[in-house]
Q: What sequence folds into this?
């Protein structure tokens, strides 16, 4: 399936240990160009979970059918979920929810 990707990013501050609110989406690039360090940029994948929440690189998805969890990443040109060392294309996992992200758990 061809995905029309909306370019969105979220920014995690590794010093404050929290996400930074952006007044516009391109602000994160301005900060990086100005030399702001300790930021982690996470891109929107174009996919949503079963609760219609945007899925970003770095999110932890839970497959609600099998209770497996994995981290969203970008590998060889595709958005994948890495579950116990196995790469699954994100579109193959139909019934998932965001269970947290690499910075914090939502449990």
A:
């Amino acid at each position: 399936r061809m995905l029309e990707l909306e370019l969105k990013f979220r920014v995690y501050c590794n010093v404050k240990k929290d996400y930074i609110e952006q007044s516009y989406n391109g602000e994160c690039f301005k900060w990086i160009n100005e030399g702001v360090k300790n930021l982690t940029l996470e891109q929107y994948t174009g996919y949503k979970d079963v609760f219609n929440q945007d899925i970003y690189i770095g999110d932890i998805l839970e497959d609600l059918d099998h209770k497996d969890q994995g981290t969203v990443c970008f590998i060889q040109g595709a958005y994948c979920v890495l579950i116990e060392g196995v790469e699954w294309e994100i579109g193959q996992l139909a019934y998932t929810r965001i269970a947290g992200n690499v910075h914090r758990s939502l449990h």
